Structure formats: structure tokens, C-alpha cells
Amino acid sequence: MQGEKLGLYLYWQDRKLSAAGFIDLLTKYVALLQSWRPEFLHLSLLDAHSMEIDFNSLSHSPELFLPLLFNEDAWYIKPDGSRDTNLTLDSFSDSGFYCDLFTATKKSDDPLTISVNIGHHKVSAPDGRVYGNEIPNSVVIKFPAQPVPAFYEYNFVKELFEQSVSFWQPYAGWVTSNEFRSKLKQPGSVFSIGWMSYFNNAALDQLTLDVYEKKNRLIVLDESPVSSKDEQQVAKAVAVRNVLQNAGILQWPAKQQE
What we know:
Oligomer: single chain
Strand order of the largest sheet: 6-7-10-1-11-12-14-13
Number of strands: 14
Radius of gyration: 19 Å
Strand content: 15-25%
Order of helices and strands: EHEEHEEEEEEEHEHEEEH
Helix content: 10-25%
Structural class: alpha+beta
């Protein structure tokens, strides 16, 4: 898969979360990764001035995260429903909270990055309209370019995907490259598939698919990483995508569209 960087993508809708809840989930997810692999022991993030900060130095105090989450263009919702521009631990935001973590000591070193953008939820306006359905919650992990063997091993990628799905409980997720994903674009579908894919949809349980592995709503297309230059892999992925599309799996569940 020379030249094709992998990405891991998880998506779900409408999950309200305070700043304290965001920080709690983020620190627990990082702790899970750090207990699993040494590659995650030294994660950094950027402050408002693009200065690097060691994640572990913040994890003992949730208040230290607030300046990093603050968005000067956002209005924050307090528990009593009032809104202001002051971010506190008990604040909510209908546009969620965002944080970027990376494994290298310098962002220019082509690190593995973890982007967490969660807390998006539907909001009812006084006129009766509902906002927020169009913005999904997401966790996106971008892998460094090869050669970084540890980040491209089958067992590493699969376990990272499985642990992330188990922790975040998304509706949809996949591991793929941008080049491979571009081969699978299909009008009318919100989602596609990748080297590894996951959909929290009971309809998937009843489908028979020509894939390397299908278990617990996780689909592994092939034993080897996918490549957009591999015509057989692309054709196999297209066939699987078509089955999932016909079953309605590549859309948000209807209950989330109401």
C-alpha cells in the first residue's frame, strides 16, 4: 500500500455532552490506548497559540483543558438553558467540542493523529425547527505515511479499530485510504466501506458477504491492507458496498433522522 496513508473513521449522531463529559471520555480513551501500546504513551496537543502541550500533564485537572477547548465564536449552553460565551466544565455546545492529539514531538514529523469532535446534538429552536442533525460526532485517526511498520500491521490496526468501536459506540466506522475510498463513491449513500468496516445495524447480521472476516458487525475485506491500485480488491469492495447499500445499512438509521 505504498503511498496510501490509512485513516480510521468513526461516526455517530446526537449525543449531548458537557465539557466535563468530553474531557472525561477523552482521558479515558487515551488511558485505554496507553495501557495497550507504548506508541500512545507520549501524546501531545496544541494550544491556541500552536504550542505543543504534553497530554499527560493535563490529565490530572479537567480545568486545564478548558482553554484548549474554548472557541471564541461559540455560544455555550448552561444546565439551566441559558447561553453565554463563557466555557465552564458544566457547559454544553450544540456544535460539540474538538481536540487534536498526535504522537510525534513535532507536528511536522508526520505523526499519528487522533481528532476527537464530539458532543454534537439536536437543538430545538423557539420557532420549532430542529438543528444539529447534519453534524455527526466523529473520532478520526490518521496514520503516518509508510514506512511505519507498527502502525500498519494487521493485528495492530484491527485491535485499534475494535477497541475504538467498543469505547465510542459509533453507528458507522471504517479503516481505509483516501485513494481507496475515492474508488467507492456512490450517490445516495452516506457511508462507504474500507479495509475494515463496522455498522451498528441489525440488518448486517443477516447478510452473507464475500469478505475475509465478518464478526460482531465488523467486516474485514482482506487480510492485507487495501490498495486503490488492486483491481480485485476494489471490485470486491464494490460488491460488498452494493449489498450493504441495498440493505439500507449505508444510511443513518431512520430513528436518528426523525
